[in-house]
Amino acid sequence: MYKSFALSMLLAVVTVVSFSSCSKGYKCDCTYGSERVIVSIDDPKAKAQEQCDDIRDDLYRHSKSVNCHLR
Question: Does residue 55 contact residue 43 with C-beta atoms inside 8 Å?
Answer without folding.
Answer: no
